[in-house]
Design goal:
The complex is a heterodimer of chains A (about 350) and B (about 260). Chain A is mostly helical. Helix content of chain A is about 70%, strand content about 0%. Chain A is globular and about 55 Å long. In chain B, strands 6-7-8-3-9-10 form a 6-stranded mixed β-sheet, sandwiched between helices. Classes of the chains: A mainly alpha (about 350), B alpha/beta (about 260).
Amino acid sequence: MIMMTNRQWLMTGAVVVLLLMLPLFLPNFWLANILGRAMVYGIVALSLTFLAHYGGFISLAQTMMAGVAGYAVAMMAPTAIPLGPLAMSYGYAIPLAVLAATLTGALVGLIAVNTREIYLLMITLALAVGFSLFAQSNTQWFRGYEGIRNIVGPEVFGMPFRTHLVFYYVALITAVLMYLLVLYVVRTPFGLALQAVRDSARRTSAIGFSVALHRIGAFALAGFIAGCGGVLITFYNIGITPSSIGLWPTVAVLIMAVIGGLGHPLGAFLGALIYAVMDTFASSIIGHDRFNTLIGLVFLTIVLISPDGVWGIGKRLAGLGGGKEPITDPVAKLTAGGK
Amino acid sequence: MTSNSALPTDTDALVLTGVGRRFGALAAVSNVNMTIKQGERRAVLGPNGAGKTTLFNTICGDFPPTSGRIHLFGQDISRLKPHQRARLGIGRTYQTSLLFTGLSVLENLYLAVRGARKGRFSMLKAGPGDADVAYARALADRVRVTQLLSAQVDAISHGQRRQVEIGMALAGNPKLLMLDEPAAGLSAAERPELVALIRSLPRDLTLVLIEHDMDVALSNSDIVTVMKDGVVVVENTPDLIADDPVVQSIYLGGGH
């Protein structure tokens, strides 16, 4: 269904099997606090990579969309402290929260529909910061500075969500599904038209597509992806606060996506992994106060050496190793016959 | 062609009534009246800056007219957006190729096919034996880019891009096809192929052609419109237009 060559399928399958088996080898800390965390933040970064690579939109509103889902699930969570007036079971709260993020994505797309490049960046940044400040000052629903606590997530097969294994596997499955979703959608008429808008908006409308609707649709899908990440991040943090969706977390998602490489959906997860590793171990090496310096230097180095990030380095290394781009059947690539 | 009273009829493919387009103080096109019959081949000639491409853009909706009305088969399209006009049956090419450079030739053509019908938002991939993909392949055959189906558009030559452009303009089975200098930048060897392609178009298709190459323009049109400084100066049949003193002074007089 999804366009990959046999070799790529084989490699993807091997990586997924490896990730599935990792709990046999790795300590819980690595599973949940490094890999699990990288996967849930990677989903939010993926939402940005999807918009940037296939639509040509650099948006800073992805953390905000994730935050909308996080706050929505927190307000509706049956375990929330303080308990909200909308409390319901997680079975309803989670899909509703993702829906809220999807609608928020569409709304951001609608607001930014006629802006490009630096103006799009500014508008989405303003929306992100505005939402965070709103959450901080609204005490009735968003519980102000304190946020909403004890969002522990549903039980899965009778086990608490926060069990390392449960969290790891749910994060892994969601991340793989989102990754495959992006790879699939970009080969459908909707996804192809999105890339068409990126390459020439004028020509896209000249063949009958509404450019505005496609942009809004792309932001809605990005909101859906970010929302799935936002719900999991809220479970990971056992709650949500305004500072977790403020300026720094917003920029952090951009850093993850750029470090990993905006040229491929995989880059989002690579970048999130590097970020998580550095965030965790920087304190023991150079002290926690210096984390920003360190991540800034890594960011600078990677952007200077390889503008398409770690993924770009990997791609060039694979090219050096004599791995040739396989010749693909163009029709198979476009139709479900493609492997 | 000068009165505003002539109401558009069913056999009129395109009727422009007092169409003008201003950019600030600059009147790029002013008071153009034009009636193009269904199945007619119309060439638009004129020196650089005459307003030919601007006129195209007002018809296709990229720059809607600032004055006047445009009727397509009797329907007023003056205020419609470009994609709405495309759905009503206008296909066009651009002076400089505007293609989706990050996609393959087949994907460009396939998108042009999908843009012409419902399901533009479809998030389902085409199945095996999909009719739209098959049609996109047939278009590739027609504009002779079959060998390039999987090539990414930014890797193909200028001449091949021109052919893909025409294939995309034809994808929606347009009733009105507008070609903006299709021969521009083509080699002498590529031109006859283009002319053959234009001649092979179905006879009921209405064609409007901007062309600098007089031979290509005159040999492929029923009526020629000559523009200068944003206004129509002469409209006549090809055999008479070359002898027109006004045309000779502005077009041929310039050392052509």
